[in-house]
Amino acid sequence: MTTTDDAWLDAIAWGPDGLVPAIAQEHGTGSVLMLAWMNREALRLTRETGHAVYWSRSRARLWHKGEESGHQQVVHAIRLDCDADVVLLEVEQKGGIACHTGRHDCFYRALDAAGDWVEVAPVLKDPAAIYRGSP
């Protein structure tokens, strides 16, 4: 049931699984940090709290970005694309690390002229030092 307060969520073209892709873009630089997924509750909580909340498909639960690493995303703006099927979050990335690999962003591999994926961004912090129980 949609309440009047949540009516803004109805403008979104949710996928058949109830999810929408969400791009986290760095506020100020415009750099794309990551792609994640949101359900209605994640997007509603993101708006309410001002911190990015996603739906973790692997954990099948809400995921408050930074809940383990401390690398939260403070949301400056929420935008919707022209087809209403992609959400863009303009965020301030706390700790400078958005990726679970310890890099600034998740797009650290580039396709070179030979057709190989090469790493083009450094690891800023060892993931084992970031996450409890990491190998």
TrEMBL record:
Pathway info: Amino-acid biosynthesis; L-histidine biosynthesis; L-histidine from 5-phospho-alpha-D-ribose 1-diphosphate: step 3/9; Amino-acid biosynthesis; L-histidine biosynthesis; L-histidine from 5-phospho-alpha-D-ribose 1-diphosphate: step 2/9
| Keyword set, alphabetical order | Amino-acid biosynthesis, Cytoplasm, Histidine biosynthesis, Hydrolase, Magnesium, Metal-binding, Zinc
Q: Which domain of life is it from?
A: Bacteria
**Location of the Phosphoribosyl-AMP cyclohydrolase domain:** 34-108
* A GO molecular function held by the record: phosphoribosyl-ATP diphosphatase activity
Quote the Pfam families the UniProt record gives: PRA-CH
GO biological process, alphabetically ordered:
L-histidine biosynthetic process
The prosthetic group or cofactor this protein requires is: Zn(2+); Mg(2+)
Q: Which reaction does it catalyse?
A: 1-(5-phospho-beta-D-ribosyl)-ATP + H2O = 1-(5-phospho-beta-D-ribosyl)-5'-AMP + diphosphate + H(+); 1-(5-phospho-beta-D-ribosyl)-5'-AMP + H2O = 1-(5-phospho-beta-D-ribosyl)-5-[(5-phospho-beta-D-ribosylamino)methylideneamino]imidazole-4-carboxamide
Q: Which residues bind Mg(2+)?
A: 81, 83, 85
Name the SUPFAM superfamilies on file: HisI-like (SSF141734)
Q: Where in the cell is it found?
A: Cytoplasm
**Which Gene3D superfamilies does UniProt cross-reference here?**
Phosphoribosyl-AMP cyclohydrolase
Name the Enzyme Commission number(s) assigned to this protein: 3.5.4.19
Determine if Magnesium is one of this entry's keywords: yes
Specify which residues bind Zn(2+) according to the UniProt entry for this protein.
82, 99, 106
Name the principal localization, coarsely classed: cytoplasm
Comment on bound cofactor: Binds 1 zinc ion per subunit.
Q: Name one GO cellular component term.
A: cytoplasm
Family of the protein in this entry = Belongs to the PRA-CH family.
The subunit structure is:
Homodimer.
Write out the function statement from the record. Catalyzes the hydrolysis of the adenine ring of phosphoribosyl-AMP.
Query: What PANTHER family does the entry give?
Result: HISTIDINE BIOSYNTHESIS BIFUNCTIONAL PROTEIN, HISTIDINE BIOSYNTHESIS BIFUNCTIONAL PROTEIN HIS7
Q: Which HAMAP family match?
A: HisI
Q: What is this protein called?
A: Phosphoribosyl-AMP cyclohydrolase
Q: Which organism is it from?
A: Allochromatium palmeri
